[in-house]
Amino acid sequence: MIRVARLMRVAGLRAAMGRRPLLSATEADVQPEPDVAARHRPVARDAAQQLGREEAWAWLWAWPARGPKGAGRCSRADGGQDSGSCCARYWGPGLRRRRGGLSPPRAAARCGLVMATEQRPFHLVVFGASGFTGQFVTEEVAREQIASEQSSRLPWAVAGRSKEKLQQVLEKAAQKLGRPSLSSEVGVIICDISNPASLDEMAKQAKLVLNCVGPYRFYGEPVVKACIENGTSCIDICGEPQFLELMHAKYHEKAAEKGVYIIGSSGFDSIPADLGVLYTRNQMNGTLTAVESFLTINTGPEGLCIHDGTWKSAIYGFGDKGSLRKLRSVSCLKPVPIVGTKLKRRWPVSYCRELNSYSIPFLGSDISVVKRTQRYLHENLEDSPFPWLFSFGYFSKQGPTQKQMDETSFTMTFFGQGYSHGTCVEKNKPNIRICTQVKGPEAGYVATPIAMVQAAMTFLSDASDLPKGGGVFTPGAAFSRTKLIDRLNKHGIEFSVISSSEV
Questions:
Q1: pLDDT by residue for the chain (503 residues), tens digit each?
Q2: Which of 103, 121, 175, 212 has fewest C-beta within 10 Å?
Q3: Could you give the maximum distance between any two Cα atoms of the chain, in Å?
Q4: Kind of pairing between the strands at 388-390 and 287-298
Q5: Apex CA 265: angle with CA 262 and CA 270, to 5°?
Q6: Given CA atoms 103, 107, 108, 110 in this order, what sign does their dihedral have?
Q7: Sorted alphabetically, which InterPro entries does this protein's record hold (predicted)?
Q8: According to CATH, where is 3.40.50.720 located in the chain?
Q9: Is the peptide bond before 270 cis (omega within 30 degrees of 0)?
Q10: 129, 159 Cβ separation under 8 angstroms
């Protein structure tokens, strides 16, 4: 059994769902009710052009909005245009009524519908499906679709360089899941990371790309670029801080302009850590000011094994730490203010009384990811940041055997402290403590596919709860207001409160 520890200071659709159905629209055609089709067709085309996309969901009223004196005009600055046209320009946000016409959307109101069309036949595409981790992600997507009701199943595809290898992955998943027809139900897209045109073609066919091709420092950026340029969102399972922070620096504004979401580190790095900290905050009956977390990897008689690709990603990251420091210095971000007392730093090897074990610092991306989430929540949602730190403690080209994966599990334990409501933070010591846990199966190739696929399902079904617009996000920033934790609980990654008490 290997114990790992880490520590760190953590820093309405109602109006849109009006009297009549909402309208879907593409550049080529609209399908509203017959009596309003002619009136809304040019509006829908205008929306598609405004978005620079092949398609657009124009969330429009199915009746004219009455402006001042019933003139049917919008009372905004550009109120000279038909109010329906003004509404069509919003990608996703809902609208609300007020006297004198329609007012701009509430910040929290968002589009909650994702739909495949002829231009984008697939809801999601697993890119790198024939890779070691990609095959498990493919299997998890298939499992999710088989478990769903027929009416709620989503069209999806696998993508990679070799059609033969992709078919083999689908056949293997079909055999394991007892679904002989799986190969004929899933699309196959041939594309290569070295061929930008093929990446564009892949991105154009999907609403969401699950990128499983690493190391991301070498192969990740072309996928991000293709997705943004073609209006497609992307989720990856990167554990490389430099890549994650570089993508945010280079592409956040471009992604926001396109209204797409690039969500990194959505596997074991770093969903349990990032969402575990948020879960701890949400469960505390007061203000959380500090969190210390410990990761325990439990193995069976055959021990622990990690695939060679994961090892390479870590080694390249260590070898280029100077670039990460330079990137952070150029960003010139102001320090996030800390509430409450500081946590004591641990030595490289330290003893944890709570778990009766020694720990060493964790070397993955979790610290970087959680810090970025805390910054986002502080700057955009005005949440109090709090401190946090992380610690850790074989690699083969073949990766772990099935038996090794079956016998391995992880437990992430969070010890939080803070202040009860009404307590003066400046004059008192923390008077509340809480202990929470995140438990799950083998981290790299069982929990990671579960986390990635459930993040994708959440993205597709809970779009109204995502951050406004688009951009490059951490999992905690993207999913803090969604039901992702509930989904993970139902799929074997369990969040729970162990204890909570006043000091």
A1: 433 344 443 333 333 333 333 333 333 333 333 443 444 444 444 444 444 433 333 333 222 333 333 333 333 333 333 333 333 333 333 434 434 443 433 333 333 334 566 689 999 999 999 999 999 999 999 999 999 877 788 999 999 999 999 999 999 999 999 999 999 999 999 999 999 999 999 999 999 999 999 999 999 999 999 999 999 999 999 988 889 999 999 999 999 999 999 999 999 988 999 999 999 999 998 988 888 888 888 888 887 776 666 666 566 655 566 665 666 566 656 666 566 666 666 655 666 777 676 565 555 545 667 677 776 666 675 554 544 444 343 445 567 889 999 999 999 999 999 998 766 666 678 889 999 999 999 999 999 999 999 999 999 999 999 999 999 999 999 999 999 999 999 999 999 999 988 75
A2: 175
A3: 79
A4: parallel
A5: 140
A6: positive
A7: NAD(P)-bd_dom_sf (IPR036291), Saccharopine_DH-like_oxidrdct (IPR051276), Sacchrp_dh_NADP-bd (IPR005097)
A8: 122-263
A9: yes
A10: yes
Could you tell me which residues are beta bridge partners of residue 246? none
Would you say 72 and 64 are in contact if contact means Cβ atoms under 8 Å apart? yes
* Contacts with 399 (C-beta within 8 Å, 6 or more apart), sequence order: 132, 305, 306, 307, 308, 445
Which residue in this structure is represented by tokens 């090897």?
349
Where in 199-352 does DSSP place strands (E)?
Answer: 206-211, 233-236, 261-263, 287-298, 306-307, 350-352
State which amino acid sits at residue 224.
V
Distance CA 235, CA 140 (A): 15
The 10 Å Cβ neighbour count of residue 429 is 11
Tokens for 169, please give them.
């992955």
Three-state SS annotation for 148-174 = CCHHHCCCEEEEECCHHHHHHHHHHHH
Q: Got the DSSP string for 374-423?
A: HHHHHHHS-PPP--EEEB---EESS---HHHHHH-EEEEEEEEEEE-TT-
d(CA 417, CA 433): 4
3-state DSSP assignment of residue 92: coil
Q: Supply the Cα-derived Rg of the chain in whole angstroms.
A: 24
- Among residues 173, 188, 181, 182, the alpha carbon closest in space to that of 125 is found at 188
- The pair phi, psi for residue 483, each rounded to 5°, is -100, 25
The structure tokens 């772990």 sit at 400
In degrees, rounded to 5, the angle at the alpha carbon of residue 381 between the alpha carbons of residues 375 and 383 is: 65
Residue type, position 466, single letter: L
